[in-house]
Design goal:
The protein is an alpha/beta fold. It contains ten helices and nine strands. The N and C termini lie close together (11 Å). Bound molecules: SN-glycerol-3-phosphate and magnesium ion.
């Protein structure tokens, strides 16, 4: 089963920081997942929430702050004081870390709350410039963004994200269209998902930090999982 480090190695390092990504880059895992928002000056930054309140010593919406001002905040101490020098990474800085590795990069576009005008084109331009197209999967809860990615560049692999228990997901996924289904763990083992697995479309599940759940998913034919503890999960699954 393929393992993706969720928000970097976020169980032991502050999520979506350079420290979390350097740890993920060191591991012999399949890939890494991270979340992208856009600043007031249109820069792409890697952070999970719409605001910086939970993961920094600042407050406010990413969309209302310039990159140079965002860079002044500490994005590590909320997790552990040793990480006080972590700043918010740009997408470019994260891609730099994985430039010479072979990890798949799952870029999650967080445009489901704020639409972030122009974000899809900016992300695709950056990936094209860096010739990273074959290594990237773009996912989102914003399925209009998933649809737009395919319209702009059909070569990029896409995935639609879901939290819910789904009815006939294959019809909907083909309609978007999306290349893969990324779904919350409990919903992934419902019968409707077996239909997607049977069709050959990749199903990937978040967020799996329990080794017993990982085995259940593997047996169900789930292709990959996102975990906050990639090293522990890699060791556990390799020994089975
Ligand atoms: O992309 C998988 C997972 O990260 C989706 O949920 O909230 O952790 O971004 P979230
Ligand atoms: Mg995510």
């Amino acid at each position: 089963m393929e393992i993706f480090a969720h928000r970097g190695a976020s169980g032991n390092y502050p999520e979506n920081t350079i420290a979390a990504f350097k740890e993920a880059a060191r591991l012999p895992i399949y890939g890494v997942e991270f979340d992208v928002h856009m600043t007031l000056d249109g820069e792409l930054v890697v952070i999970h929430d719409e605001t910086i309140d939970r993961t920094s010593n600042g407050t406010g919406y990413v969309k209302d702050i310039l990159l140079k001002d965002l860079k002044k905040y500490d994005f590590g101490s909320w997790f552990l004081s040793n990480f006080q020098d972590e700043t918010i990474p740009t997408l470019n800085e994260v891609l730099d870390i994985f430039h010479l590795t072979e990890h798949k990069l799952n870029i999650e576009l967080k445009s489901d709350i704020f639409p972030y005008e122009g974000m899809v084109s900016k992300v695709l331009d950056l990936i094209a410039e860096r010739q990273m197209e074959p290594r990237v999967i773009i996912s989102s809860f914003d399925h209009t963004a998933v649809q737009f990615v395919k319209q702009l560049n059909p070569r990029i692999e896409t995935a639609a994200l879901f939290m819910e228990v789904l009815v006939h997901p294959l019809d909907y996924l083909r309609k978007i269209p999306a290349d893969a289904l990324h779904i919350l763990f409990p919903a992934a083992i419902r019968p409707s998902i077996a239909e997607v697995i049977k069709s050959g479309m990749p199903v990937r599940t978040f967020t799996v930090n329990d080794e017993t759940y990982a085995m259940t998913l593997k047996q169900a034919g789930v292709q990959a999982m996102f975990t906050d503890y990639p090293e522990k999960m890699f060791t556990s699954l390799s020994s089975k």
